[in-house]
Amino acid sequence: MTDGAVSPTTSGAPTMVQLLDASGVRHEHPEHDAHLEPDELLGLLRDLVLLRRFDSEAEALQRTGELGLWVGTRGQEAAQIGAARAASPQDHFFPTYRDHGATLTRDVDPLHILSIYRGIDHGGWDPVEHGVHPYTLVIAAQLLPAVGYAMGVQRDGAVGTGDPARDTAVLAYLGDGATSQGEASEALGWAAVYHAPVVFLCQNNQWAISEPVERQARVPLHRRADGVGIPGVMVDGNDVLAMFSVVRSALDRARSGGGPTFIEAWTYRMGAHTTSDDPTRYRDAVEVEQWREKDPIERFRTYLRAEGVLDDDFEDQLAAEAEALAERIRAGVRGMTDPDPVAMFDHAYAEPHAQVEEERDAFLAAWAQQEQDLEQSPAGGGR
Amino acid sequence: MERAPMQKMALGKAVNAGLRAAMERDPRVLLMGEDIGKLGGVFRVTDGLQKDFGEDRVLDTPLAEAGIVGTALGMSLRGYRPVCEIQFNGFVFPAFNQIVTQLAKMRARTRGRLTVPVVIRMPFGGGIGSVEHHSESPEVLFAHTAGLRVVAPSSAHDAYWMIQQSIASADPVLFLEPERRYWEKGDVDVDLGPGEVAPLHRARVLRPGTDATLVAYGPTVRLALDAAAAAAEDGSDLEVIDLRSISPLDVDTVVESVQRTGRLVVVHEAPTFHGPGAELAARVQERCFYSLEAPVQRVGGFHVPYPAARYEDHYLPDVDRVLDAVEAALAA
């Protein structure tokens, strides 16, 4: 930038909420503080470590041909876990395709995420049961439905009652690239106008595939909130305590009828966009090394050690749990069977559709004929 | 019990009455759109509904079509049944992403775990002398999108019942209202039981005939009937079918007719190129190959952007063009 525009990558740092710096030192903040018990702190560490293991195992499965594609989370664990753990059970998530941390905190079977990337389905979990909307691949297209869901919550009278088990908020995930989509602007304006109980969590991981955040905006992303008249907060996305604290207060505010908030989580995508990407073509290894110093898990570990909350026994147990998770994932993915082909016709419509039924019948007839032909062929044997 | 007498209603008023009936029956039904509240919509189709049902159920929304459809989808996930109004056909495209990538696919994406019963009402077709984007017939774009249902009433009676059936459907429905027919009056039998209303996706034979079959939907149904009346004066007996539904298609009703008449003319305002007539022609030749006495004829819009109003008389199918096609079919 040479014309005086405010760069989204260099400004905003003084206003960034940070409770734990990169070396694991705890800082006080006048508005935000996470008062967590030792078991809650260890719970966060467990989530972070298991997410990283889940991610590395999935990447390995892609490399060995078991998954068609993998969308990695390395570097963004604190942003995802801190935010998701700040939510109440009745809150509803609208994630992107990278938000495995959010999804896993909702007791979704990890295999139900991996089946997407093996090509079995588009997500095996029940969105209602788990409170997690299916992954949305069209950038920013989950945001307007998230706002609409929040408007439905309002109509249900589940905002501002003061009943912590009833009041509900929506956590809408997006990335830095998504802020450029028109629908993102629409969703922000719409949420503001209707005072919807929704929190927009923008993980600014600095890169939209190969495009740096400077290509998306000339102001820090959280300042997009100013334009629609809702609070915009910037938080250190690699600081799980700050993430937890900021998102919790935003969700509390939404649930109590205070309206939407836009949160920019300042983080970094340590790996490639997906396993099909090659980030060495567009970004500097030095930049990656600088962010490695800000690792979200190491700083938290350092802090917990210093506080005397974390000991070797817990670390050993956690390592064993991560290993068991990895084994379960490996076996589970390799054991996945391909879906019954005719199932593709099952859910195009809720009610009968003459043309789909006709096509399904023709497909089944052709399938049966092929089976019969194979059996009668000289080589014999079925499919 | 005495049956209520038929009510004479304009088509637009019949949609209004149908919406009112659905809203009275089900408190989850909401209306969303631009200018649909105090103004009652630019065509006044929602006239009086906000006054009677309140601003929480008839929402004047921000001027953003993706927002209307996207938030309607979100509300449907909370159990609501939103009915969106897109002000004019050419303004649906900002919402196209939400309709095609989210609304249409949500049920399949979740293997049936989520249903999104959203209705999108939209005036379509030309003939009102309006400016660009106000007179288009983009139904094929939606009919070609699996997961959507696409219907178009041609009469006040159908408008009244089909809007209620669309709202009751578990699937997303694109409900196309023939804008130049909004003021045409017809008899509406509002006193029908559940089994007495024609199924939403069933075509209807409006005029029996023996020489050729005319198929139309929405605004061209009146045109087809006029053409059939003119042909009768020349001694030709045409059967007229109102398709009523574009997705799914009631091919059986058309096939049954063509097997008797041996000739088919399809009339719509949408361009004929890759149009609904092409789909019908393909399906009819598959099933009526040995009954067909003539090639299937199509009458429709041209493969040009919808022209300025002063071209409309030449762009839109009219009785002469329909009769030319009928003549070609009968001559073969």
Description:
The complex is a heterodimer of chains A (about 375) and B (about 325). With about 375 residues, chain A is of the alpha/beta class. Chain A has two domains: about 15-335, Rossmann fold, CATH 3.40.50; about 340-375. Chain A has 13 helices and seven strands. Chain A has helices spanning about 40-65, 75-85, 100-105, 110-120, 125-130, 145-155, 180-195, 225-230, 240-255, 285-290, 295-305, 310-335, 355-375, and strands at about 90-95, 170-175, 200-205, 205-210, 210, 230-235, 260-265. Chain A has a five-stranded parallel β-sheet with strand order 1-2-3-7-6, with helices on both faces. In chain A, strands 4-5 form a two-stranded antiparallel ribbon. In chain A, a hairpin with a 2-residue loop joins strand 4 and strand 5. The N and C termini of chain A lie far apart (about 60 Å). In chain A, about 45% of the residues are buried. Chain B has helices at about 10-25, 50-55, 65-75, 95-105, 105-110, 140-145, 155-170, 220-235, 250-260, 275-290, 310-315, 320-330, and strands at about 5-10, 30-35, 60, 80-85, 120-125, 150, 175-180, 185-190, 205, 210-215, 240, 245, 265-270, 295-300. Chain B has two domains: about 5-195, Rossmann fold (3-Layer(aba) Sandwich), CATH 3.40.50.970; about 205-330, Rossmann fold, CATH 3.40.50.920. In chain B, helix 7 links the parallel strand 6 (about 150) and strand 7. The relative contact order of chain B is 0.12. Chain B has about 325 residues and is an alpha/beta fold. The radius of gyration of chain B is 20 Å and the shape is globular. In chain B, the strands form three sheets. In chain B, strands 3-2-4-5-7-6-12 form a seven-stranded mixed β-sheet, sandwiched between helices. In chain B, strands 9-11-10-13-14 form a five-stranded mixed β-sheet, sandwiched between helices. Chains A and B meet through helix 6, helix 7 and helix 13 of A and helix 3, helix 4 and helix 5 of B.
